[in-house]
Amino acid sequence: MANPQLAAKLKITLDEDQLTNCMRCGFCLPACPTFRETGIEAESPRGRIALMKAVADGLMDPDEAFEEQMYHCLGCRACEPACPADVKYGRLLEQARDAIEDHTRSHRLWVKGVRRLVFKELFPKQGRMRLAGKALRFYQKSGLQRVARTTGILKLLPKQLADMEKILPEASGQGVIERIGGRHPAKGERIATVGLFRGCLMDTLFAETNVHTVELLTEAGFEVVIPRTQNCCGALHAHSGELDDARELARRNVRAFKEAGVDYIVSNAGGCGALLAEYDHLLHDDPACREDAAWFAGRVKDVSDILFRLGRLPSFGDPAAPGGPVRITYQDSCHLRNVMRSSDAPRQLLRRVSGAEFVEMHEADRCCGSAGIYNLTQPEMADQILEHKMEHANATRAHYLLTSNPGCLLQMKLGVERYGDGGGMKVAHIADFLHERMKKGD
Amino acid sequence: MLPEQAKRELIAILGDADFKDDPQSLVTHSYDGTAMQQALPDAVVYPRDTAQVSAVMKVLNKHRIPLVTRGSGTNLCGGTVPVNGGVVMVMHRMNRILEIDLENLTAVVQPGLNTKQFSAHVESLGLFYPPDPSSMAVSTIGGNIAENSGGLRGLKYGTTKDYVIGLEAVLASGDIIRTGGKLMKDVAGYDLTKLLVGSEGTLAIITEATLKLIPPPKAKKTMLAMYADLYDAARTVSKIIENRIIPATLEFLDNPTIRVVDDFAKLGLPLDMEAILLIEQDGEPETVERDIARIEEICRGENAARISVAATPEEANKLLAARRSAFTALARLRPTTILEDATVPRSKIADMVLEINRIARKYGVNICTFGHAGDGNLHPTATTDARDLDEVHRVEEAFAEIFEAAIALGGTITGEHGVGIVKAPFLEWKVGAAGIEVMKGIKAAFDPHNLLNPGKMFAKQTRKRVVIHHG
Predict the structure, then answer these.
(1) Is A42 at the interface with chain B, CB within 8 A?
(2) Which of A137, A266, B334, B339 lies 20 to 30 Å from A226, alpha-carbon distance?
């Protein structure tokens, strides 16, 4: 079924230079999780770029299979560091999805529902996120959750959502500002003033982690401010073809942090941080905001990175466990690693924890299958990837599996729930783990 | 489009999932790693065993439909582009190691096995499979065999052909043959094993390979030497060999490459140097120490301006960085990168590099040269833009003249990438008209209906030779 509107839009949207820069050497193939799972060329970055180029060249109609293929990609961007020619695959993918969202004829009904809820009604509106957090908390605390679980009513949900229900942490209607306020002085001499990017998921489901992040930063010598007018980073929108919405959210964030007068913007969610660091690209065609966006993008740091590279690190120590030292391992956040190119700092921090033994997990640099809302929209592939991920996680025999992004954290919890070896592996955010072991003021 | 009947028969053999002819599958099997080559197949198949390969080939033979065998599609000669349409057979589903024989030091593998995975597995057993093409993280053993791939270790250890001692292959008729075996000696008839290695999918479909493994070297040492004069560097290469030292690796970067690499990787390379040699020796620890010391002496004797010998593996990695990033740095310069592999006797390296630079200037194109100096195998690499037709034409003219220059120096048009589509018009320059006729005779004996990878190796027309005027 031909879709001439989509074909025309793709021809305009797709960056011709990037399509030409792909020289089809295939070096991205082994880095791609979906290619590794399927062994099918179309499921690889080289294949997907060839499809985009074929559409742009008029060699192929952008049919339904084409649309599906563009959404089959996790967007983990592991192909980018592997690419000799430095092709900006992530941008091409965003452009393709943006065109598809404007002219698609497919999308399963419930996917559409989820997308509308998430992109238009929930994430752009911090108040609603907060309200959703309160509702979730009510559900978890009032006994409703118990009732729902015992009556089997959850079986009516798609399996992926039902499983998610089990692993969601206790939600909160109170974010980091409501808990501890918006300005925190540095301990000792101030190294720099940093603005905390609190995130939507982070501040409803992991508000405690945000509090811990603030305390780690102040302890290491940073003054922390949390601008109240910041909002969702727009990553879920940008990666799902809702570029206009993403740009609007980006503009508001740039303004909020510019006004706050910070030296750095610190994120504790790799998925958010990566988009924040690419605001210069996102707002490049907006003359009013271009300069501020470049300022902003150049100052985004992940919490591990700024602590390790610029901070006065406190010592971290694990109280000796009865069974010998506690074993810990780390799952990279794809966007932290492949876009922000930070993979060393979290590991270095974890290696500093005395009484803990850090073990590297095989293929820790591979996507866990969470990938934004991928685990909800592409449950089969996400589950296949997760199962393989958990084989490697189980092989580490670690007591703690640490992550740097809320999506990865939830997905790894789901992994332990589904494919854990029964050893009770705990999944935690690196900031929580470090905070618990931080020795203050020494 | 395949005839309906043929399609039905293929699906009956393979099942629905392993036969594809949707637009997405056709587009994604229309290219390989070669710049500016694309042609759509009519279908893509994914066989799971030799029996399926044989059955598929019988159907294709009956209907006279062409077949292109494909691994990961990383070759640089257009070898897996289906220029005559037909069926692309992807070997990825046949990717198992069937046996590692620790008594005979051999491995039996399927063609779709990833080269690096195989290499790593062999190393974990304390053994060594030396062929290491730059694409080994992506490529397959079957693809390496079809193209007779080389790599950085070719000088001392040889290339893929030196490690293939037996094959199972399906002929165009669908019949299955076995050649060689776990045999270090075998002169029973023509050496079909060696004939199939490097035959680029034009003679048979390789379905299983028996490979020779060797004990790994115990120690390794790396050094870098820089030269203000190209001939000094080239003489060093000859001198090392003359002194009866065969290094494991002896790589070369020319001045344009040094500049590009330094700009990309910020390694602090001296930009006034005309050449860098990267040298590695491996073997028994004492031998390695003695060889490296002797090579260092030779480098100094040939006026090397600077020499660094790595004391630790980390330092060795730093020295390797310049060579490793050469391709990446070049690929980022311009949208289109054309990597060639003209090869000359190693004593002629300097003359060849000067010829390449002269030709690049003559045609006003940007060509950087690096490569395996110890093998005389250079990679003149043009950076251009496929959309600029005039420039692309000049690049093609320049390469034609480079091939001619290589042959004039006693060399060849391709040392390790293969003929495929892109070198086919030049093959006769190297092997002569009678040579072409013999090769065509061999092709006809294996594949009388020209079904296996048609349009490769033999051009419709040989390119007119370029006359080089010296002086």
Answers:
(1) yes
(2) A137
Give the tens place of pLDDT for each residue, B321-362: 788 788 888 988 899 999 999 999 988 988 999 999 999 999
Of B28, B137, B335, the CB nearest to A30: B137
Asked if residue B295 is part of any domain, the answer here is: yes
Number of domains within chain B: 2
Containing structural domain, residue A18? 4-103
Expressed as residue numbers, the domain containing B195 is 97-212
User: How far is it, in rounded angstroms, from Cα A203 to Cα B51?
Assistant: 58
- Mind listing the pLDDT tens digit for each residue in A268-308? 999 999 999 999 999 999 999 999 999 999 999 999 999 99
Residue positions counted in chain A: 442
Cβ-based contacts of A59 with chain B (< 8 Å): 27, 40
Answer with the one of B393, B408, B423 that is the final residue of a domain.
B408
Last residue of a domain, one of A261, A288, A310: A310
Query: Are residues A152 and A217 both part of a single domain?
Result: no
Chain B stretch 30-69, residues whose beta carbon is closer than 8 A to a beta carbon of chain A: 30-35, 40, 46
What is the end-to-end Cα distance of chain A in Å, rounded? 68
Name which of B19, B25, B26, B27 to mutate to probe chain A: the one with the most chain A Cβ atoms within 10 A of its Cβ: B27
Query: How far, in Å, CA of A274 to CA of A91, rounded?
Result: 13
As a whole number of angstroms, the distance between CA B252 and CA B262 comes to 15
CB contact under 8 A, B114 and A21: no
From the list A29, A50, A60, the residue facing B31 with the nearest CB is: A50
Task: Report the C-alpha dihedral over residues A73, A74, A77, A82, rounded to 10 degrees.
Answer: -70
> Residues A161, A181: one domain?
no
CB contact under 8 A, A26 and B28: no
Domain count, chain A: 4
Q: B76-119 pLDDT, tens per residue?
A: 999 999 999 999 999 999 999 999 999 999 999 999 999 999 99
Nearest to B356 by CA among B395, B325, B414: B395
Token reading at A314: 């406190």
Instruction: Note whether B312 and B341 are same-domain residues.
Output: yes
Contacts of A27 in chain B (CB under 8 A): 135, 137-138
Q: Is the pLDDT of residue B471 over 50?
A: no
